[in-house]
C-alpha cells in the first residue's frame, strides 16, 4: 500500500476547501463592531452573517455595559423600547423586498432636541420631561423614510446651551455625560451625549445641533467626525430652537464616509423652514460621490492660528497636520488669521442675537406641545427657580437657569441692538471671512477645532452674577455667524490620550469640497482612536 504523506493530505484538503468556498478570492472577512463602517455593516448583512436584530442587540449590550455601568457615561436620556421590534421588521422587509437605502436598518442616536413623535423630546430639561411632540422633525422623518432605527435620544447641554458654572454635557434631566476617553473630562457641548455615544460605539450614526460649536466641540473632545453644514442645507423644522440665525443640525459618525452618506439623505426643500430655499441648485442627495483619496492634491489650504498658544500639545498637532497636508499635495498658506475686529466682535454679535431670538422662538415651539408644559420663557424661569436641590431624577442647572434670565431680558426683535447685530454685525463678519478666502485664493481654511483638549468636569455650581458664559477662546462660532460649513476630523491625541481634531472650514455650500479634503486627510493619517474605557464585548468580532 502506498503511503501518502500527511503534508500531501493536508494540501489536498485545503484545495477541496478552497473549491467549496469558491477559491482564494472568497477568503473569510472579519467583522468588528467597534471599527465597522455603515458599508461594513451592510456587507455583513448581505453575506447573511449579521441581521439588523443582532446589530441592535450588540449596540444595546454596549449601552448596558458602559452607559450606566463601567465608565458610566450617562450619554442617553431615553432608549427606544421598540428598537428590537423595529430591527426585526427591517430584517423581514430586507428579506422580502431588499434594502430601501444604504442607511436601511442602521441604528441612530439623535440629540434629545430633535422632535420624535414616538419618543419624548425634552431638550435635556426637567421642564419638558415626557413631552411627546405632534410630529417628527423633518430630518428625523427623512431618515426614517430611509429605514433607520431610532435607538434612543442623547443627553445634551440643557436647551442646547450652557451657562456660567455649568460643565459641558450637563442637563437637569439627563445629569452629567462623561467623556469615554477619560470620564473625568467633559464630552463637549452641547451635543455631548451624541459625541460620547458615537465614540463609545453605542450606534454607528448620531445627530447633533450646532449654534456656536455644538456639533464640533463634542466631535473634537470625543475624537469623531462631524459636519456643521451650511445653514439652509438641512431643515431645522421640529428641532427645539436656540437661535435660528445660527442653528443647524448635522450628522456625527466615526468616519467621513458615514457622515457624507447620512448628509445626503437629509437635504431638500422644506416649507416648514424657509431658509432651505437657499439650497436650490447647490445641494446633493449623495455626497459620497465627491470623496477621493487624492482630493488634497493642489488644494489651497489656509491655516488659521488666531487661537494658538493655549495648549502646547494641540499646537504641535496643528503643526504636524500642516506637514501632513503638504505631504498629501496641498498648497498650504500659513497663517491666514482673521482680522482682530472679527475676533473681538463675534461673541457680542452672537449674544445680541441669541438673547432676543431664544425668548421669541422657544415660545413658538412651546405652543406646539400638549397642555401641562410651560408656554413661554417666563414660565420656564418660574419653574426652574423652584428646583433648588436635586429631586428624584431632576437636578438644578443653575448656570442654564441664570442664562434663561439673560435671554428673557434681551431686547425685542424691533430693537436697534438686535437689528444691528443681525443686519450689520453678521454680514460684517461674513465679508471679512470672505475677504481672507479671496485675498489668499483659498479652497478651505483649517484650524484646531478647539485650541485645548477636553477639560476636567467641575460639578455644577451657582456662579456669581456677571460671570461670563460660554467659551470665547474658539473659532467655531465664526461658522455660525457666517452660516458657512465646517467639517471636523480626528488629528491625533495628547499624551493623556485626549483627542484633538482639525476643522476644514469653507464658504457657503462648499460641502462637497470640504468632505473630500477631510476624507483625503482621514485616509492618509487614520488618527481616530477607540476609547480605552469602552473596549469590545464578546460577540462583537467574528469571521464570515
Report Rg.
24 Å
| Poorly predicted tracts of residues | 1-24
The secondary-structure class comes to alpha/beta
> What's the multimeric state?
single chain
Instruction: Compute the number of structural domains.
Output: 1
What general outline do the C-alpha atoms trace?
globular
CATH architecture: Alpha-Beta Complex
Strand order of the largest sheet: 4-3-8-10-9-14-15-13-11-12
Query: Treating each run of at least 4 consecutive H or I residues as one helix, how many helices?
Result: 15
- Portion in beta strands: 5-15%
- Report the mean per-residue pLDDT as an integer: 94
Number of strands: 16
CATH class: Alpha Beta
CATH topology: Amidase signature (AS) enzymes
- Helix percent reads 25-40%
Q: How is the main sheet built? A: 10 strands, mixed
**Termini separation (Å)?**
40 Å
Describe the structure.
- The chain is α/β, with parallel strands linked by helices and 544 residues long.
- It has a single domain (31-529), classed as Alpha-Beta Complex (Amidase signature (AS) enzymes), CATH 3.90.1300.10.
- The chain is 36% helix and 12% strand.
- It is built from 15 helices and 16 strands.
- The strands form four sheets. Strands 4-3-8-10-9-14-15-13-11-12 form a ten-stranded mixed beta sheet, sandwiched between helices.
- It starts with 5 loop residues before the first helix and ends with a strand.
- Residues 1-24 have low confidence and may be disordered.
